[in-house]
Design goal:
Blueprint lengths: L4 H13 L4 E3 L5 E4 L6 H9 L4 E7 L4 E10 L9 E7 L3 H25 L32 H10 L6 H25 L4 H22 L2 H7 L3 H4 L2 H4 L11 E9 L7 E13 L5 E14 L3
Helix pairs in contact: 1-3, 1-6, 3-6, 4-5, 5-6
């Protein structure tokens, strides 16, 4: 993915800061992240709002975790007026282990952001690698955590030289990352890994997805898309407006694109509108728009 690495780091970091509270429901204690839980009142109300049960709540901004037991107490004369009693419980060792490892991952992210923000950062805007070179240029690979998204980044690189529209490539990129994350999380749970850590990794990875998706939709990313010969004369690059639909264009029907099984074991089925655009030379060219994606994971 060959776009401004400084910009990627900034939008990624903002995405992490803006990540909303995320909860995972499953058997056993509920697990959630509340990065705006700072006062006792916030913590307690967050637990009470989850209802009766045991709730493990992490604050990754503050590097803290609390376990609450919420019990329902019936009113002796009017059951409809029952109340919830919230009490603080002891964090188990797996909970503390999950917090420690998640904070190390978060530190890795912040180290990358700091390096990318430095005026002496060894990052370049132009990659000399082949078209598909994973997530980022060669110079920043050592600073990007492994979030299992290399295959998605490679597909995005290839898409930029396939004649597909800018938005179509970016939406496919997000769909593949989302599907990959669900698979990795399911594998972690099914293999009886630390469920608390698996949930926190999912929260952090969601922030990575959000940041990468913001980055590939920036003006710099669009300018990069338009540097490829196959895109230079497209309407959106000539008009400097992604998804531009000029007079004389029309939707000619549906196009279905199916990839082969990739190295990480997935296959993408894209269903797109196939549009016909005037090429400015009394002819036409075609591009897919408004795609929806199904990502299937195969046995490798």
């Amino acid at each position: 993915m060959k776009i401004n690495s400084f910009l990627i780091s900034m939008v990624f970091y903002c995405a992490f800061l803006l990540t909303p509270n995320i909860a995972e429901a499953s058997s056993g204690p509920s697990i959630s992240v509340c990065n705006n839980c700072y006062s006792d009142l916030f913590w307690t109300e967050n637990a009470r709002n989850k209802g009766a049960g045991t709730h493990v709540i992490f604050n990754l901004e503050a590097g803290t975790v609390r376990t609450y037991l919420v019990r329902k107490r019936e009113h002796p004369e009017n059951p409809s007026q029952s109340t919830l009693i919230v009490s603080l419980s002891t964090n188990s060792q797996p909970v503390l282990d999950a917090l420690n490892e998640a904070m190390q991952l978060k530190d890795t992210i912040e180290t990358y952001v700091s390096l990318a923000s430095s005026s002496n950062a060894p990052f370049s805007l132009v990659s000399t690698a082949p078209i598909a070179n994973g997530c980022g240029t060669e110079e920043i690979k050592d600073f990007i955590p492994d979030w299992h998204f290399e295959d998605a980044c490679n597909l995005h690189d290839i898409c930029f030289v396939s004649g597909r529209s800018f938005k179509s490539c970016n939406n496919e990129f997000k769909a593949v990352m989302d599907a990959r994350l669900q698979q990795v999380y399911a594998d972690a749970i099914n293999s009886n890994q630390n469920r608390y850590l698996a949930t926190l990794k999912k929260v952090l990875a969601n922030a990575v997805i959000k940041g990468f998706y913001l980055a590939v939709n920036t003006d710099i990313s669009f300018q990069h898309y338009c540097t490829f010969d196959i895109n230079k004369n497209s309407v959106e690059c000539v008009e400097k407006e992604p998804e531009k639909i000029p007079t004389g264009s029309q939707n000619t029907g549906t196009s279905m694109i199916t990839t082969g099984v990739t190295n990480t074991g997935h296959q993408i089925i894209a269903t797109c509108e196939l549009w016909q655009f005037p090429d400015g030379n009394n002819g036409y060219y075609y591009a897919e728009r408004n795609c929806t994606f199904d990502v299937m994971w195969m046995e490798k």
